[in-house]
Amino acid sequence: MSETKQSTQSRLAPGTPLCAGCGGLQAVQQLYRILGERTVVVNAAGCMTLLAIYPFTPFAGSWLYTAMACAPAGAQGVRDALDIQLAKGRISAEEDLSTVVLTGDGAAYGMGLSATSAAIDRGLDFLYLCYDNEGYGNTGHQYSPATPRAAHTATSRVAGFAGTKKDLFAIWAAHRPAYVATAIAAEPQDLARKVKRAAALRGPRLLIVLAPCPTGWGFEPALTVKVGQLAVETGIWPLKEYVDGRIVHNKIPRERQPLADYLRLQGRFAHLFEPQRDERRLAELQQAVDDYWREIAGNTRPSP
Amino acid sequence: MTRILLTGNAAAAWGARLAAVDYVPAFPITPQTEIIETLAEWIDGGVMDSRLVTLESEHSMLTAAGAAAVTGVRVFTATSSQGLLYGMEMLYNLAGWRAPLVLVNVSRGLSAPITLEPDHNDVLAARDSGFLQIHCATCQEVLDNVLLAYRLAEDSRVRLPVIVNLDGFYLSFTREPVEIPDPVAVADFLPPFADLGQHFRGGQPSSQAVAVLGGGPYSYFRYQVHLAAEQAAAVYADLGRQFERHFGRLYQAVEAYRCDDAELVLVMIGSFATKAKVAVDRLREAGQKVGLVRPLLLRPFPVAELRRLLGQRKGVAVIDQNLSPGRGGILHAELAEALYGLAKGGPLLASFVGGLGGRDIAEEEFLQIVEVLSQAVQRGSAPPPRLLFTADELQQVRRLQDIAHGSREGDDAS
Questions:
Q1: pLDDT digits over B192-205, tens only?
Q2: Quick check: is A303 in a domain?
């Protein structure tokens, strides 16, 4: 049974103060099982900042909290300091660590975008995990640049968010880093494959993991996996990766489920269904998903 | 030892070079840029075994600087003015991280209106950050105090980041003869970086800068920073004596110039204090008992030395090259607090604000400041605070305003 034995060194310790059913924590769990303790997790202000509260940490490895805008710059300092010490023979290769940035969408899509862009420009050897819960979660879920259209948040309580979700994957990929991928913890094999692939590369490697958020999105914690699976099956969260200059969709839903199946499970979209179905807005949201996949099909299939 | 003409910026770069810094996170800003350009050339040319990385902002620059210092290397960085304020959030963080690095700030007035020339509002905005502050008046002091700052920052009793401050233009771009210490002697004075166990290493997991819950632990760690900063006063005194043994130049927390029998004393920081010295010499020649007191250390604030040096004087004039709108000169307020409660009531204290945005303080103005102070002492009551500004300057501004408003000389005739 040795193949099923897991090192405790690569598991997050239980008892974190994060919300029940946190889709972001699921992803961090899965990531950490692969990367393990020889890491420095460099964190920006967000929900995950509460993972390490003095004197406790769930990580067997190292941790540095920075501030909301600058986790990639913190990773730069750590990476450079390790490289300098390696080059000067002050530490051994066994004492080296890999540098992991961990932030939410608030930092990744907004305040920290400049720092991330510059870290990619510099070719920083790091892995970035953005847990995207589509809002400023730790402050009570106000809308962020990652919030989807029409979603109720603490700052869009009446008509829902009027903007559209920013395409961070495209922005990151436009920098031509070593690797960019989207993923979700509800598709653990896909996530594991991507983390392993990213871990095997050098240079900037960035993952955006959709993080279903029972607290902010308004669903029962038991439904986190279900909501996550529907995000993929309805096609609203495409699983894809950018590597070697190409974008590849990893899981193209042959028959996409109606987007309404995904939206209906979440309190943040309840106003689209109650007191009566808002057919116009539902159709508009479905159309956006359909348009995305039509464009993908056009790009991947040569026209006759 | 070599004595050559160096700008203040080059002197700062020489300090970093002699300190054998491992890492230089950088971002250009006038009037600091020459420092990082000089270091970049030395590093590229193989003269320095160091790594320079240009970040995309001062906020990121300071983050990388702190992160590298707590990973275990000696870090140097530099900025000015808007850059210091852009990174302000991280100044507080780095002090809390106990990141023992040195930041050279080249003072420049803050926007708006935007300007390039110096005053001290930038560095004084960092006053409460937990960074220690050393204020230089000459290019030699800049070089020497970068070396002292590393000893201070890395001392086990202190373990805090240090700002070494010099004035833009007046020092940054002004060449003065500077003695460059012998690298062997520097290596003896400043041993290689010791991380004292604060680092990130495989096999030695550690968490740094983690959150706390509740005011108890928060207060504890903040008090630790304060107590360490207070301890830095005695450490700087000790290091100053060690430095003198190595290099023959003595640095103390406060410089007292011609103060022995002085009845009236000027108090200033930075390069403009050298102008005050000239005025003191002139007044001494005229038989007046006038001196100058110049704090080099602003954090920790050398309260005991200032009380000892100023407590028995008849009058003290603080000339602030900064302005706290609605309050006045910042050092005046700090000094008033430091001198409060002396047994004999202490000296009469007068406040002058001048030198904002690089505005000169002319010798006649120093003489007038002393005259105003002298009359106040005879009268027995402090004069109202004065903002230095001449009728000529007002007239010049009026002319600029006329142009801005679209009227030109001769418009009436046309």
A1: 999 999 999 999 99
A2: no
Q: 3-state DSSP call for residue A220?
A: coil
Give just the sign of the alpha carbon dihedral A99, A123, B26, B6: positive
Q: What gap in Å lies between CA B278 and CA B294, rounded to an integer?
A: 14
Give the CATH number of domain B2-196+210-247.
3.40.50.970
Residues of B in contact with A18 (CB under 8 A): none
Check whether the bond before B300 is cis (ω within 30° of 0): yes
Question: Which residue is listed with tokens 């400043």?
Answer: B190
Tokens 């290596």 found at: B187
Q: Which CATH architecture has domain B255-392?
A: 3-Layer(aba) Sandwich (3.40)
Nearest residue to B49 via CA among A89, A125, A126: A89
CATH for A147 = 3.40.50.970
Alpha helices in B19-173 (DSSP H): 33-44, 58-69, 81-86, 88-97, 121-125, 139-154
Please give, rounded to a whole number of angstroms, the shortest distance from the CA of A241 to a CA of chain B.
27
Residue in B closest to A93 by C-alpha: B202
Closest Cα in chain B to A39: B202
Domain that holds residue A88: 3-296
Please return the burial class of A298, using the count of CB atoms within 10 Å of its CB with bins 0-12, 13-18 and 19+.
Answer: exposed
Q: In the numeric block, which tokens belong to residue A202?
A: 């050098």
Q: Is residue A301 part of a domain?
A: no
**What is the C-alpha separation between A169 and B172, in angstroms, rounded?**
44
Q: CATH 3.40.50.970 occupies which residues in chain B?
A: 2-196+210-247
Q: Is residue A161 domain-resident?
A: yes
Give the count of domains, chain A: 1
> Do residue B71 and residue A115 have CB atoms under 8 angstroms apart?
no
What percent of chain A is helix, strand and coil (3-state, nearest 5)?
A: 45, 15, 40
Residue A110 lies in a domain: yes
For residue range A150-207, list pLDDT tens digits in order. 999 999 999 999 999 999 999 999 999 999 999 999 999 999 999 999 999 999 999 9
ipTM over 0.90: yes
